[in-house]
Specification:
By secondary structure, the protein is an alpha/beta fold. It is 45% helix and 16% strand. It has a single domain, classed as Nucleotidyltransferase, domain 5, CATH 3.30.420.10. A five-stranded mixed beta sheet has the order 3-2-1-4-5, sandwiched between helices. Helix 4 links the parallel strand 4 and strand 5. The protein is globular. It binds one DNA strand through strand 1, helix 1, helix 4 and helix 5.
DNA sequence: TGCCAGGCCCTCTTTAGGGCCTT
């Protein structure tokens, strides 16, 4: 096995801020194992109030769809089992972490794994990309899509493939055979000016 | 109902401000 398993997840939500009462309306996640997607999790969830027309248009998730979906608590119970103790990855992880911690907290659970950010890693690994939005990076890396964006499972799958592409980029560019989760976390957290020195150490086998 | 934030990074920085990215 080249890479330790990770869970890549994505939330669709009613807005940007749990502090202002926003809730999750869909979760999608993939288990990345052996350089591919080994398992998937997806569910809409009912936040208990109507979602805005902006979110309906942005995600394609309608009020009718969430009204017939199971409540957040039920979905998050199932997701907690899927998540297990795997390390986690999300694109702009600070956003998904807020909602994950909120929804888990509401059912008396807590996150028990680190979460790495594919966006911060991509800024170091693909500094010349036009920008580091998920959709841009997917095109930049030539990752196949079915054209679906802003739905949780589609975005989680694309982020998963991006994560694998970045691991392969490190392997090919720096001659290393294993790119563990904590190496990717360090790449994501390194300051831009320090990145060349750090990556040279990676190439020299000093990680 | 309609509108909102926050974490991180960068630099013309650190006694700060602004951009990116997520829904």
């Amino acid at each position: 096995m080249d890479n330790l398993p990770v869970i890549v997840l994505d939330f669709e939500t009613t807005g940007l801020s749990p502090q202002y009462g926003d809730r999750a309306i869909e979760i999608g996640a993939v288990l990345i194992e052996n350089d591919g997607i080994a398992d998937r999790f997806q569910s809409l969830m009912n936040p208990g109030f109507r979602i805005s027309s902006f979110i309906e248009a942005y995600t394609g998730i309608s009020n009718d769809m969430v009204e017939t979906a199971p409540p957040c608590a039920e979905v998050m119970q199932q997701f907690a089992e899927f998540m297990g103790h795997y390390p986690l990855v999300a694109h702009n992880a600070s956003f998904d972490r807020k909602f994950l911690d909120l929804e888990l907290g509401l059912i008396g659970k807590s996150r028990n794994s680190d979460m790495a950010c594919s966006m911060l890693a991509a800024r170091r690994i693909y500094p010349d990309a036009p920008n580091h939005k998920l959709g841009t990076l997917v095109r930049y890396c030539g990752i196949h899509t079915d054209g679906t964006f802003h739905r949780a499972l589609a975005d989680a799958e694309m982020t998963g493939h991006l994560w694998l592409a970045m691991i392969n980029e490190i392997k090919a560019g720096y001659g290393v055979t294993r790119v563990p989760f904590d190496l990717m976390q360090k790449i994501a957290g390194i300051a831009r000016v320090q990145a060349p020195v750090f990556l040279a150490k990676v190439a020299a086998g000093q990680f």
